[in-house]
């Protein structure tokens, strides 16, 4: 049984090698132009030798030149983007009041601003109790907190 496995493994290895050779033969079809040899010679220390007395094929129809690599060097940026402008508190409060109104939250302006300051930085349960005790619906609490954070850039 062991001999059969060894023979099968050897046959599989031979099949893989044969397929690889066939693929290499197809890829390196002698009917096409290959620049690999010329490139290798141009980088060796030996002087290049002409392999053919035929004229260069670059002008002949059907000849494809190998694509040339392009190297782009990007210079590091030295300038910095300007720091974002922090709106004054009056604009932030007005934006906050507009956002909560657009979300359907109805509250007196002065209470909403006071509640925003009072709940900012608090854990959710504390903020939830404060806001719902003040008359906000429970399903509006997260929106209220998010809108405050968005318009005031945090606390």
N-end to C-end Cα span: 76 Å
Low-confidence runs? 50-55, 83-87
What's the number of extended β-strand segments? 0
Total number of helical segments?
6
Mean pLDDT equals: 74
Order of H and E elements: HHHHHH
Going by helix content, strand content and strand pairing, the class is: mainly alpha
Helix percent reads 40-55%
Radius of gyration: 37 Å
What does the largest sheet look like? none
Beta-sheet strand percentage?
under 5%
Shape: elongated
How does this structure look, described?
The termini are far apart. It contains 6 helices and no strands. It has helices at residues 2-27, 36-42, 89-102, 109-119, 124-133, 141-152. Helix 3 packs antiparallel against helix 6. By secondary structure, it is mainly alpha-helical.
